Amino acid sequence: MANLFPILAIYAGVFVTLTVQLPPPCPSEIYCHGPLLHAVQTAELYSDSKTFVDKKLRFLPDVVLANFSQLMIETQNQPTKEQLQTFVDTNFDAEGLEFQPWDPSDWISDPPFLSNVNNLELRDWGQKLHEGWKALGRQITDDVRDNSDLYSMVYVPNPFIVPGGRFREFYYWDSYWIVKGLLISHMNQTVRGMLDNFCQIVDTYGLIPNGGRIYYQQRSQPPMLIPMVDLYVNATGDIEFLRQRISTIEKEMEFWLTNRTVSVNGYTLARYNVEYDGPRPESYREDLKTAGNLSGNDLEEFYINMKSGAESGWDFSTRWFINDEGTNVGDIGNVKIRNIVPVDLNAFICMNAQLLSKMFSLVGDEAKSQIYRDKFLAWKEAIQMVLWNEEDGVWLDYDMLNNLQRHYFYPSNIAPLWAGCWDEASPQNSLVVDRVLNYLDQSQALQFVGGIPTSMQNSGQQWDYPNGWAPLQHLLVYGLENTADPRAETLAFDIARKWLDNNFLAFQQSIPNAMFEKYDVTSLGLPGGGGEYDVQPGFGWTNGVVLDFLEKYGNRL
Ligand SMILES: OC[C@H]1O[C@H](O[C@H]2O[C@H](CO)[C@@H](O)[C@H](O)[C@H]2O)[C@H](O)[C@@H](O)[C@@H]1O
């Protein structure tokens, strides 16, 4: 499946269109592209497409590929589903075999936050979630390091916390809220190991992949390494740790500044954009099905948009739909994320610049500190000039196809408050807070018993109504708290309380007790749904956010 992609180039002073071949998600002809992957994934041997690409090989890749060629010869290229199942059972082991037992040495039985939780039922719940880190902790076996050809798992030396369920590997942006929770649990050593894993990955790949699998290798997720390091340094005061890793974390920032920026109305801003070929290996048949009869450049563009959607962490949402009228009504075939400048991504980049400035100053490099201070100020101005909407009184995603702001409610619209990327010092400070509070009120998103929905549109996608997600509740709560406005602080507490009520009831009602990756916010006690896989129990970032809210508000609940 060779795929060609047009690029604009200058040849002898004239613009010409060249076609180049986009590379696959990774070189592996088993896990990332090629006839074997195609045959197995389209045969629908497993209800979840991710199952196959997580399996371990029983023989070296060349042997497995030769066995597959033999099967194709014997069946005149038309193996039955049963023959393919026999081939997979013979050549692959079960998924989830990459780990050895791990008992975290920094786990303590009574972390201090628990004594701040007055309500005894909630305190008991907090204790159980604190214990839950052990069940979600993973240490990769030496065999993955020594025989990496047999696995899709990316080897990292230190133990880490996974989201849970089908998410058997580390996930990049999930780890920010996991790290938050771990620090509340006083598991500083585990956090340090996770950060070292990420630094090693940046040094090897030049970016942090979406998750710890080779099929995620070429796409990232919202940039949270620098904020994670900041959390760790604030908790421990370990400046030496920072000094030794600052050039690596700067490298990760450079990845975004070099590969993910665009110019909008003369301002530099960031977008998600993964220019790699073919369906997502872990959602192969889903992407093929949506692609339908697309071909040529339209097909290329579609595959780029699917991977870019995964890079955003919001896979998928009306937030990324652009239909022919330029609105967000449509279906997954309308995903045009690479034409959208997202508020949250730009707030995160702006925050990263500010944190790097602070960090370089901490390690005594004032010249670098000034460079990142200038970048922070430039990004903050660009966010204000391109994304702020004076009429709505909030920041909005920007559609570069139609040159317009997207007037739809998403919690990400207030990300600049969370990230500290708005003009707090300006005389208009309280005006901004007034406007944002008014915007939230008008949005109708505050009316639900179980938290704030991801949007006000029910598209069947998982990052839309009626689902609420832990990182978005955190963004709203701390975005509002950061304003230091009493009305905003009251609303923040109210959102946190609703979210805790919802999570706690779902935990009590599930057998066995479980935390989920997302919840339905229109009632209390139900997990969310939609999207391309079943709702997953676990769950790393959900637990991290609950621990954070219990620590912050536990004496008021
Ligand atoms: O397999 C489908 C998609 O699954 C992941 O995305 C979802 O789970 C992640 C782990 O909790 C989370 O980071 C992401 O925000 C969720 O949408 C995966 O990250 C995607 O790349 C993948 O296509």
TrEMBL record:
Question: From the Swiss-Prot or TrEMBL record, what is one GO molecular function term?
Answer: alpha,alpha-trehalase activity
Q: What PROSITE patterns does this protein map onto? A: TREHALASE_1, TREHALASE_2
GO biological process per UniProt: trehalose catabolic process
- InterPro entries xref list: 6-hairpin_glycosidase_sf (IPR008928), 6hp_glycosidase-like_sf (IPR012341), Glyco_hydro_37 (IPR001661), Glyco_hydro_37_CS (IPR018232)
User: What EC number(s) has UniProt assigned to this enzyme?
Assistant: 3.2.1.28
Q: Which terms are listed as keywords in the entry?
A: Glycosidase, Hydrolase
Q: Which reaction does it catalyse?
A: alpha,alpha-trehalose + H2O = alpha-D-glucose + beta-D-glucose
Q: Which major enzyme category is it? A: hydrolase
Which family does the UniProt entry place this protein in? Answer: Belongs to the glycosyl hydrolase 37 family.
UniProt name for this protein: Trehalase
User: What's the source species for this entry?
Assistant: Daphnia magna
